[in-house]
Amino acid sequence: MKIYKERIDLESKTQFEFMDITDKVQEVIERSGVREGQVTVYVAHTTMGVALNHNEPMLLQDFMRTFYKLVPVDGQYSHDLFELRRESTSDGRSNGHSHCKSLLLGNSETIPIERGKMMLSNIQNIFAVEFDGARKRDVVVSIMGL
């Protein structure tokens, strides 16, 4: 059993952004030499998520509209009340909505690998989803297999 791990550096350009990282993840798999196994894509950020879906521009707009409807930016989030916190580790952003969106999406996806390729359908893509940009981020790609 082989274990290989690598980070992918990203930089989001907007506050809410779907970044297609499918090709970058496949490149990491190729560098790993693993032919059969699984890859886990993980973000260690509390205002970001990982998703598998179709990279179609109108569909991405639908996803964004759904998130904005479920978790509006202008909602009343206790997290944003900095002056009430005793021990704040906040960077000063009013981003309670970003944390809530991330909780709904989740921070990892695991995909089987067969013959050195991810077992994604021809319309599935891997997205690092930014909810609190623009900023520099990283994604951990962890591969296990033979």
Mean pLDDT: 93
Give me the secondary-structure category. alpha+beta
Helix count, DSSP H or I runs of 4 or more residues: 3
The structural domain count equals: 1
Q: Assign the CATH superfamily.
A: YjbQ-like
Q: What is the first-to-last residue Cα distance?
A: 5 Å
CATH class: Mainly Beta
Instruction: Give me the oligomer status.
Output: single chain
Q: State the strand order across the main sheet.
A: 1-8-3-5-6
Low-confidence stretches: none
Give a verbal description of the structure.
This protein has one domain (8-74, 93-125, 141-145): YjbQ-like (Jelly Rolls, Sandwich), CATH 2.60.120.460. It is built from three helices and eight strands; from the N terminus they run E-E-H-E-E-H-H-E-E-E-E. The strands form two sheets. Strands 1-8-3-5-6 form a five-stranded antiparallel beta sheet, with helices on one face. 23% of the residues are buried. The model has no long low-confidence stretch (mean pLDDT 93). By secondary structure, the chain is of the alpha+beta class.
